[in-house]
Amino acid sequence: MSFKLNESNFLRQFRDSDSREISKLSAAQFIQVWEHYDEDGNGYIEGEELDGFLKEFITSVNPDGSINSQVSDKDLAELKESFMEAYDDNKDGKIEIRELAQLLPMEENFLLLFRFDNPLDSSVEFMKIWSQYDTDHSGFLEADELKNFLRDILKGASKSQDVTEDQLIVYTDTMLNVFDSNKDGKLQLSEMAKLLPVKENFLTRQIFKGPSAITKEDIDGVFSLYDRDNSGTIENEELSGFLKDLLSLAKKDYDSTDLTEFEETIMKGCDTNKDGKISRKELTMILMALSEQV
Question: Per the confidence metrics, is the pTM higher than 0.70?
Answer without folding.
Answer: yes
